[in-house]
Amino acid sequence: MRIISTERSQVLAARVAAKLGVPLVETKFTRFPDGEMYLRCGELDDETLIVSSTVDNDMFVQTLLLIDAADRSKNTLVAPYLGYSRQDRRFVPGEPISARAVARALSAGTERAFVVNIHDPGVLQHFGVPAKNITIAPAIGGYIGDLHLKNPLILAPDEGAIEFATGVAAVGGWDCDHLEKTRLSGDEVRIAPKTIDAAGREVVIVDDIISTGGTLATAACMLREQGAASIHAACVHGVFTSGAYTRLRAAGIASVVSSDTYENASSFISAANAIATAIRDDAHH
Predict the structure, then answer these.
(1) How many CB atoms sit inside 10 A of residue 73's CB?
(2) Class for domain 137-260, per CATH?
(3) Catalytic (active-site) positions
(4) Could you say which DSSP state residue 25 is in?
(5) Which end of the chain is more exposed for a tag (fewer CB within 10 A), N or C?
(6) Which residues, in sequence order, are CB contacts of 52 under 8 Å at separation 6+?
């Protein structure tokens, strides 16, 4: 097996290669004058692992080109961050189910696929090949453990994320709850943990993705008013659109970290070990 990657997943691909003990193949990327992309891979094997977070449209096209470049080998696709996966339903006639369109396109030329903490696992059914979801909740729990917080309270931003938060909290046997929004009046809303008081607690809000960070920033301000000793945030996919990282820090969140599924300066947690383990386990079945 050899590993190739798109431009925005180079670091994670190198880490996965190191974990699996397999070669990382150099790929050169350039553009034609009309803007079309060109790439050329080094020598491939009879089995290729393609690591690509489709964080934008260019990375989606690069992924398609990599799959085609490796057309003489058995290909496994790892899409740690799968773009368009949240567009998973049709609300009005004439809309595409974008998640389905992307999954179908990425299935051509691949034997199997893996994603990391996809927002809705139901999207996996749209792949034309066996597709599995990998969770890095234990890795996020490990990172929180390294912060040496005193009796941290792990909070999901809503009830839908409680399963993920529970997986994180299980690492240290920490308390876990989810935030609940209560409308006090027409223009006043209170956000607080459903059952556990945040007063005096070191709080860590965990989620699969942080995009705009608006709700999280509001929740952080309210948790501070409720007496939380400190507030931290950790997520799998740190998208941070529209100045989200700054918004969160300005709201008093002491640290904001993400994983390398979406590579950026806050990627202090790696999905490499979980991906390598999933690849090995799948090969043994």
Answers:
(1) 18
(2) alpha beta
(3) 181
(4) P
(5) C
(6) 5, 6, 8, 9, 59, 62, 63, 66, 77, 78, 79
Residue 123 identity (one-letter amino acid)? V
- Residue pair 193/152 in contact (Cβ under 8 Å)? The answer is no
Residues of the chain with CATH 3.40.50.2020: 2-135+270-284, 137-260
Give DSSP secondary structure letters for 31-92. E-TTS-EEEEE----SEEEEE----SHHHHHHHHHHHHHTTTSEEEEEESS-TTTT--S-SS
The dihedral region occupied by 164, where left means phi > 0, alpha psi between -120 and 50, and beta the remainder, is alpha
DSSP 8-state class, residue 196: S
Q: What count of Cα atoms within 13 Å lies in the side-chain half-sphere of residue 38? A: 6
Please name the fold of domain 2-135+270-284. Answer: Rossmann fold (3.40.50)
For the chain (285 residues), the mean pLDDT of every run of 10, in chain order, is 98 98 98 98 96 98 98 97 96 96 98 96 97 98 97 95 97 97 79 93 97 94 95 98 96 97 97 98 83
3-state secondary structure of 126: helix
